[in-house]
């Protein structure tokens, strides 16, 4: 990110707030050569009571889980990690932002084995708008089915949100953009629908919502989980299903879910319109309820919002 594209003043680095430009790593760091990092993507929303982070504890619990899977010892408890997030937002004077907790293998020893490489932990936050485009939340996006497959179970741990795992996503994303699409939908090794490069996927048919199970090499998405709960609150049935590629083409509606993507409709796949070729009524209802909860316009009955303390006045 360039200094002029939303960069903030301070980054949390192992317990200290440091200037943005000082949060650097050596070129010999293990992560630079071998992709040894884990991270999260979180959003804080502006509410009538001030800034609030959406599902902070669930995100930081997954951050801890990713670190355990990759045997990266973190120095901080769940409470300390959550406090690092809210403290960083407050220090930067933000009431809405995107948040990137990050842990990396640093050091200057070459070799695949990471155990001697120290782990450094960061929290970065910045202002960031709609991930898939300013008009995407209403108008939807045009996508393609990627030629790249999600990694098979037993190759990469898809439960971990790890930097190296996203090289696969980069290939899909670059292919889609090169072919004139906004995003690519990836299949798993068996040809079942998996997910986007950085989003989970829901298919709506005859009023029922379908989403891929974890066995289809998907990330266990926190926004995905929220959408399942919201959809059921609204009276919709939700099922996990191993979906063949052609199931996408007969969908009434399709939408992506994710922290960055939020709830983004898919209007076409490989130039074939989905439903009416625009955001459908089920997607709209779920999207509106999701955003109403996240922005404090709807009661937060599940405790999904963590308030951001206001900056202290000098």
UniProtKB/TrEMBL annotation:
<keyword id="KW-0032">Aminotransferase</keyword>
<dbReference type="InterPro" id="IPR036038">
    <property type="entry name" value="Aminotransferase-like"/>
</dbReference>
<dbReference type="GO" id="GO:0004084">
    <property type="term" value="F:branched-chain-amino-acid transaminase activity"/>
</dbReference>
<dbReference type="InterPro" id="IPR018300">
    <property type="entry name" value="Aminotrans_IV_CS"/>
</dbReference>
<dbReference type="GO" id="GO:0009082">
    <property type="term" value="P:branched-chain amino acid biosynthetic process"/>
</dbReference>
<dbReference type="Pfam" id="PF01063">
    <property type="entry name" value="Aminotran_4"/>
</dbReference>
<dbReference type="GO" id="GO:0005829">
    <property type="term" value="C:cytosol"/>
</dbReference>
<dbReference type="InterPro" id="IPR001544">
    <property type="entry name" value="Aminotrans_IV"/>
</dbReference>
<comment type="pathway">
    <text>Amino-acid biosynthesis; L-leucine biosynthesis; L-leucine from 3-methyl-2-oxobutanoate: step 4/4.</text>
</comment>
<dbReference type="InterPro" id="IPR033939">
    <property type="entry name" value="BCAT_family"/>
</dbReference>
<keyword id="KW-0028">Amino-acid biosynthesis</keyword>
<dbReference type="InterPro" id="IPR050571">
    <property type="entry name" value="Class-IV_PLP-Dep_Aminotrnsfr"/>
</dbReference>
<dbReference type="InterPro" id="IPR005785">
    <property type="entry name" value="B_amino_transI"/>
</dbReference>
<comment type="similarity">
    <text>Belongs to the class-IV pyridoxal-phosphate-dependent aminotransferase family.</text>
</comment>
<dbReference type="InterPro" id="IPR043131">
    <property type="entry name" value="BCAT-like_N"/>
</dbReference>
<dbReference type="InterPro" id="IPR043132">
    <property type="entry name" value="BCAT-like_C"/>
</dbReference>
<comment type="function">
    <text>Acts on leucine, isoleucine and valine.</text>
</comment>
<keyword id="KW-0808">Transferase</keyword>
<keyword id="KW-0100">Branched-chain amino acid biosynthesis</keyword>
<protein>
    <recommendedName>
        <fullName>Branched-chain-amino-acid aminotransferase</fullName>
        <ecNumber>2.6.1.42</ecNumber>
    </recommendedName>
</protein>
<comment type="pathway">
    <text>Amino-acid biosynthesis; L-valine biosynthesis; L-valine from pyruvate: step 4/4.</text>
</comment>
<dbReference type="GO" id="GO:0008652">
    <property type="term" value="P:amino acid biosynthetic process"/>
</dbReference>
<keyword id="KW-0663">Pyridoxal phosphate</keyword>
